[in-house]
Amino acid sequence: MRRRFKLTCIAAAAILAAAVVVSCSVGGPSPTASAQAETPLTDPPEIVSQNGVLRAQIVVEMKPVDVAGRNLLALTYNGKFMPPTLRFRPGDRMELALENRLGENTNLHVHGLHVSPAGNSDNIFLHIHPGQTFHYSYQFPENLQPGTYWYHPHPHPTSAPQVAGGMSGIIIVDGLKQLLPPDLRDITEHVIALKDFQVEGDAIKTVPLKISKPTNRTVNGQLNPTVKIRQGEVQLWRLANISANIYYNVHLQGQQFQVIAHDANPVDRIWAADSLLLAAGARFDVLVRGGPPGSTQLQTLAYNTGPAGNQFPQATLATLVSEGAPVSPVELPTTFGTFEDLSNATLAAQRTIVFSETNNPDAYFINGKLFDPNRVDIRSKLNTVEEWTVRNDSDEEHSFHVHTNDFQLMSINGQPHEAHGWQDVASIPAKGQIVVRTHFLNYTGKTVLHCHILNHEDLGMMAVLEIVR
C-alpha cells in the first residue's frame, strides 16, 4: 500500500559521522552502485552444526554498520547487517541464545522450518524483553527438507521496523547437492540474500515505512556486487527475499534459472524460468550456468502489485561475469526430489479465508478481524489434510504465509496450478484467490498465518492457527 506505517520510531542510540556517498534508489543506478560493480560478492559467514548440534549466540543491538558503501546506524544480529548463516543437517538440534540489547521487545522466527511452534522452539508468541537472554532449543526432524530458509524477528506489532532495520539472516539445511548427479555435487554455491533499506539521516529507516518509497536493494548487503563464473560452469544460487515488505521479480539477462527447490522444498522435476517472482518471504534454490565470456546483469524487473499496491521499478542487483578457462558442460538432470502430492487426499475440512483492508485508518484483516494473540481463529487436527480457499478482497497482492507446515498450491484464480513441491509463501492476486492444501504433521500448538508484507501483518493481517490432536 502507498500508506505510512505508524509505529513509534526506535530511538537512535548514537550520532554517526556519515560517509558522503550518494544512495541508490530502485529507480536506477547511482555513483555508489557503479563503484560497487567491481566489488566481488561476499557470502555471509556461517555457523555450522558439529556432531548433530548447532550452538550459536545471537546478539541483537543497534549499532553502526558498513552497508552498501555507507556507515549507517542499523538494527543488527551480531553487529552485522548481513549476519551469520545458520547451517545444519536434517535431524540436527539447534541451541540458540538470543540476547536482546535493544530498548524494546523482540523474538526470533525460523521462517519455513518444520519444527514445533511451542515452548522455547519456534514460538512467536513469546517476547524477549530488553536486557534479557532467551535460550531457544529446536529439534529438527530427520526428514526436514533441504534448502534455503531464513530467520527474523516476529514480535507483534513491530516485526516490520525490526526487519527493515536490518534484522534478517539466512538458514541453510544441507542435502540439496546430494540430490544432484555426482558431477554436480561439488559446485560453487552462493547466497543471494535480497535485502533492502531506506535511509533517514545517518540511520537505516525503521518508521514510518512507506513501501513505495525509493529503497536500496542489496545482495548480501552489497550494491551490485560481481559474481564470477566460468563458461559452462554450473553454480547453485540461493535466492531469498529477506526484506520486510517489497517484492523481487528476479531475472538474469540472456539466461534461465533452473529451479531445484522452492521455499526449501526440492522439486520433483527441475523447471526453467526466465524470471522468478519472490513475494515477501519467498525463496528459490536455482542452478545457473556460465555463458559466453562477458558480463550480464542479475536484475529485478518492474512489478506492480495492483491499484492499491506498489509499483516496483526495475533495478540491477548484481553483475555476473563469465571469464577464465571454459568448463566441460555437464548435463543437468530433469527429475530431482519427491513430495507428497495432496491432489487426491481425503479432506478433513474446507475453509475460506478472506484477506481485506481499509483506509483511514489503515487496517488489515483476516476474515474481518484484526489479529488478537489471545483468540484462536482456526483449529485443525494433527495428521489431517485441509483445503483452504484464500480470497483477496483488496486491490493489491498479499504475500500469504503459514508457519509450521508448508502447503501445496492447487490453483490461482480458478486455474489449476501444476505444483512440483510444497511451499510456504504464495502471492494472492488483487481481487483474486488461491486454493491450497496442507497436511498437518508432527507438531501441535498455536501458530499463525499472515501476510508477509510485514507492514500489513503488524497492522492486523495475521490469524492464530491451533493444531490439536
Give short descriptive properties of this protein:
single chain; 469 residues; mainly beta; Immunoglobulin-like; six-stranded mixed sheet; Cu-oxidase-like_N; signal; oxidoreductase; Multicopper oxidase family protein; metal-binding
Structural overview:
Residues 1-35 form the signal peptide. Keywords: Metal-binding, Oxidoreductase, Signal. It comes from Pseudonocardia aurantiaca. A 6-stranded mixed β-sheet has the order 13-10-15-20-17-18, with no helix packed on it. The protein has a 6-stranded mixed β-sheet with strand order 26-25-28-33-30-31, with no helix packed on it. The chain is built from 3 helices and 35 strands. Helices cover 4% and strands 43% of the residues. It is mainly beta. The two termini are 39 Å apart. The relative contact order is 0.15. It is globular and about 60 Å long. The chain has 3 domains: 31-179, Sandwich (Immunoglobulin-like), CATH 2.60.40; 213-322, Cupredoxins -  blue copper proteins (Immunoglobulin-like); 347-468, Immunoglobulin-like (Sandwich), CATH 2.60.40.
Q: Quick recap of the structure?
A:
It comes from Pseudonocardia aurantiaca. 4% of the residues lie in helices and 43% in strands.
Cα-to-Cα separation, first versus last residue:
39 Å
CATH architecture of the largest domain: Sandwich
**For the record, what is the CATH homologous superfamily label of the largest domain?**
Cupredoxins -  blue copper proteins
Overall 3D geometry? Answer: globular
Strand order, main sheet: write it out: 13-10-15-20-17-18
Q: How much beta, percentage-wise? A: 35-45%
Mean pLDDT: 92
The helix content, as a percent range, equals under 10%
Return the structural class.
mainly beta
How many distinct domains? Answer: 3
Give the uncertain stretches in residue-range form.
1-37
Largest sheet: 6 strands, mixed
Instruction: Count the E strands.
Output: 35
> Which class of the largest domain in CATH terms?
Mainly Beta
Q: Please, what is the oligomeric state?
A: single chain
CATH topology of the largest domain: Immunoglobulin-like
Task: Compute the number of helices.
Answer: 3
